[in-house]
Amino acid sequence: MTAPKKLFIKTYGCQMNVYDSERMAEALGGRGYVETQTPDDADMILLNTCHIREKAAEKVYSELGRFKGLKAERPDLKIGVAGCVAQAEGEEIMRRAPLVDLVVGPQSYHRLPEMEAKTRQGEKALDTDFPEEDKFEKLTSRPKAARGPTAFLTVQEGCDKFCAFCVVPYTRGAEVSRPAERILTEARDLVERGVREITLLGQNVNAYHGAGADGDWSLARLIWALNDIDGLERIRFTTSHPNDMSDDLIEAHGTCAKLMPYLHLPVQSGSDRILKRMNRSHTAESYLRLIERIRAARPDILMSGDFIVGFPEETEADFRATMDLIEEVNYGYAYSFKYSTRPGTPAAERAQVDEAEKSDRLQRLQALITRQQRAAQDAMVGRVVKVLFEKPGRFDGQMVGKSDYLHAVHVAGSGAATGDIRPVRILSSGTNSLAGEALPAA
Ligand code: 5AD
Ligand code: SF4
């Protein structure tokens, strides 16, 4: 037997990349790799990149530059680039960074083992195709190692919405849903390995329309089927588009016991003029009415969103409309960004807002969001919430978990184990987490 080779994966960006990195590690497990936590002793380094932020490609090139020394010391070290920057840059990566041996786009991960073998022959391997075959099906043969209590599960990939600022439709490609039965099999397998909470992932997850035995299934239908899996206790999904919030999904938030009361529903802007320029195909008003319906189904649901400030041509009045919308919704959580150009997207060509103005708007928006977030968290004090314990905390006997509303909760001296779900009385609210005392299991 030869010693296992070591694989170091650095993951950037979204939860889907986290999921993909796990799949890549498993696929390369079949080629004799085990994961390591540092690049220093790795036989292969993989950067799983994200293209959503500014100058993403430049950052990858400078990160690659840092591996020059390692590669010079150990010529056998293979360096690969995966993810959305790999898809967007393709061959250019090998031209600009000759130390790179392998470039693989998100739709080709199932081909990694043969690509790795090619690099061991001293060849370069590049694959940024959008192949027809189901990569997930090919990525699922793996040892059944035990898992922590929470897991991501990709159900849908790609996007057909073409928001004017976004690279996803170009890097992840057209919307594709995995067949329902394969998702259910993967979910059962995760539960057998210790998982109690599954977060369904997709760039446009609520547009899910995977094949079922009796025609296409909606996301709600899939959630109801997952709800029947014994041992699975919590279901979440992200990220949704307002236009795909179907009636059955809204209803499920009120009636499906395992579906958690948290919804990430990006709106991006509160100005109809800007929403139109963004090609969002919804208005501020339609979004607000939608949230009313969701809250009618599940009054305690915690809403979360994404916002872009300083989109081309955004005026102070447009920005104020966004602030008004935030006031009206009252978010429990939000992510906010200054608009930045992505080459190849329609908005990149338009008149840009002054950088100082963008920073000022972002600051004002984040101050408002922080107030709302804090208020939502503080409102938990005195309540009893269920907590799924994920790991031991920093102090002896302390455990850390997440409430149904996705708040981090610290509990001391509970005797609870990782994977337990216990009712917890919330005693105090800190900057980013709650603290409470565990009550006897109900
Ligand atoms: N500039 C700023 N933010 C962006 N996002 C996507 N593209 C851009 C861009 N060009 C944000 C959106 C999206 C989130 C994942 O990232 O808010 O919902
Ligand atoms: Fe990008 Fe989301 Fe718009 Fe699709 S819906 S283009 S992933 S921002």
Automatic annotation (TrEMBL):
The reaction(s) this protein catalyses: N(6)-dimethylallyladenosine(37) in tRNA + (sulfur carrier)-SH + AH2 + 2 S-adenosyl-L-methionine = 2-methylsulfanyl-N(6)-dimethylallyladenosine(37) in tRNA + (sulfur carrier)-H + 5'-deoxyadenosine + L-methionine + A + S-adenosyl-L-homocysteine + 2 H(+)
MTTase N-terminal domain location: 5-121
Domain spans labelled Radical SAM core: 145-378
EC number, as in UniProt: 2.8.4.3
A molecular-function term among this protein's GO annotations: tRNA-2-methylthio-N(6)-dimethylallyladenosine(37) synthase activity
Annotated residues for binding of [4Fe-4S] cluster 2: C159, C163, C166
The keyword Ribosomal protein appears for this protein: no
Domain of life: Bacteria
Iron-sulfur in keyword set: yes
Record-annotated TRAM domain positions: 378-440
Cofactor entry: [4Fe-4S] cluster
InterPro entries: Elp3/MiaA/NifB-like_rSAM, Methylthiotransferase, Methylthiotransferase_CS, Methylthiotransferase_N, Methylthiotransferase_N_sf, MiaB_methiolase, rSAM, rSAM_horseshoe
SUPFAM superfamilies in the cross-refs: Radical SAM enzymes
Annotated cofactor note: Binds 2 [4Fe-4S] clusters. One cluster is coordinated with 3 cysteines and an exchangeable S-adenosyl-L-methionine.
Annotated keywords: 4Fe-4S, Cytoplasm, Iron, Iron-sulfur, Metal-binding, S-adenosyl-L-methionine, Transferase, tRNA processing
Binding site for [4Fe-4S] cluster 1: C14, C50, C84
Enzyme class: transferase
Subcellular location: Cytoplasm
PANTHER family (UniProt xref): CDK5 REGULATORY SUBUNIT-ASSOCIATED PROTEIN 1, MITOCHONDRIAL TRNA METHYLTHIOTRANSFERASE CDK5RAP1
Oligomer status and interactors: Monomer.
Name of this chain's protein: tRNA-2-methylthio-N(6)-dimethylallyladenosine synthase
